[in-house]
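Design a sequence for this backbone.
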């Protein structure tokens, strides 16, 4: 019997299952393991410097606001092309009781002084994780990182391991790497597979893991970096709610807009659980697509810091509908303002954006079309 693995005993903070741009935990009898991912794209360097120093602090408190875990670490990150499209990875753990907890994540750039402060609430269940995520962890020049794919591991890392914790009696595990297969009988947790001696990085672009238990087998893929991991570091929960307003129904928005600040993140998670096109799996494709569109809208349509691309009219339409089927424009029309027309043939929609100020802030002229 085949079963696609569904993990319900751990939570990825600020995101539903299938994402991780911040902190992941997996709870086992021997303790709770945390994995903190920091997208390399969020690292900033002082002008002229090739190394950045970050002080990372993660404080976990229980429902009574008592500190139950503190992890602090100093990161020295050398500017490197091979780190592009990856996430830095920190690992730590502790013995936590079941119940509600709060996480305070602080990242401080010691060279520039800028800070990221994130607060999240989560609940540790009395039920332990059956199988955690399978991490593909690379190391080069002393830096641990999560690659985007095996094909992007160039130049080759100094080490490359597949690591996965589990709390189940397993008959065997099979790791498929391209055309090669590694079989391990009666594995113990954690599963640790050294891939570097077995992988031709020039030929391999896929990896899969299969767990065999009696007459049942579970298939899964390793956890890799994706560009939208930086979403939670870029946008506050208030911004995230404002972005969801673009796609939420009127009744959904009436509920979300009244949520207290301390409940905003859990409400966002619940919204995406309802809109998950493949519930019970590790990925939420709708949420991935939405985050990708928000980030791209910022990259494409931001004019200055005070006018972020996702807040612009073009950004809003792009987040709602994606890339148009056709774009036409008149930058120097006679007797008219510059304008751009986006056409969505499949949706039978057309949007006209006009730059009446002359400095690139295109505003939607036919707003009625958006809400028809």
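Sequence:
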């Amino acid at each position: 019997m085949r079963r696609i693995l569904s993990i319900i005993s751990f939570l990825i903070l600020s995101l539903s299952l299938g994402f991780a741009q911040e902190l992941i935990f997996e709870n086992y009898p021997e303790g709770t393991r945390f994995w903190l991912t920091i997208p390399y794209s969020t690292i900033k360097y002082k002008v002229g410097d090739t190394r950045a120093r970050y002080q990372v602090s993660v404080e976990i408190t229980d429902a009574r606001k008592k500190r139950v875990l503190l992890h602090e670490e100093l990161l020295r990150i050398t500017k490197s092309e091979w780190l592009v499209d990856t996430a830095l990875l920190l690992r730590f753990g502790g013995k936590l009781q079941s119940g509600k907890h709060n996480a305070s994540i602080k990242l401080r750039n010691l060279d520039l002084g800028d800070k990221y402060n994130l607060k999240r609430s989560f609940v540790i269940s009395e039920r332990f994780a059956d199988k955690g995520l399978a991490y593909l962890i690379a190391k080069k020049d002393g830096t641990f990182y999560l690659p985007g794919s095996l094909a992007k591991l160039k130049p080759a890392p100094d080490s490359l391991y597949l690591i996965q914790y589990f709390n189940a009696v397993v008959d065997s595990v099979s790791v498929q790497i391209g055309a090669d297969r590694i079989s391990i009988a009666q594995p113990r947790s954690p599963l640790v597979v050294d891939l570097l001696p077995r992988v031709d990085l020039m030929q391999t672009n896929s990896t899969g893991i299969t767990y065999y238990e009696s007459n049942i087998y579970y298939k899964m893929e390793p956890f890799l970096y994706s560009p939208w991991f930086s979403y939670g570091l870029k946008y506050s929960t208030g911004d995230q709610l404002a972005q969801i307003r673009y796609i939420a129904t009127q009744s959904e928005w009436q509920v979300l807009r009244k949520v207290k600040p301390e409940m905003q993140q859990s409400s966002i998670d619940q919204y995406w659980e309802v809109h998950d096109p493949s519930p019970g799996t590790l990925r939420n494709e709708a949420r991935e697509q939405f985050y990708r569109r928000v980030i791209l809208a910022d990259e494409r349509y931001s004019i200055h810091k005070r006018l972020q691309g996702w807040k612009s009219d073009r950004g809003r339409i792009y987040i709602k509908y994606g890339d148009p089927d056709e774009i036409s424009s008149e930058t120097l029309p006679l007797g008219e303002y510059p304008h751009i027309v986006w056409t969505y043939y499949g949706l039978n929609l057309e949007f006209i954006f006009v730059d009446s100020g002359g400095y690139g802030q295109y505003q939607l002229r036919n707003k009625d079309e958006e809400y028809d």
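DSSP finds seven helices and 21 strands in the chain.
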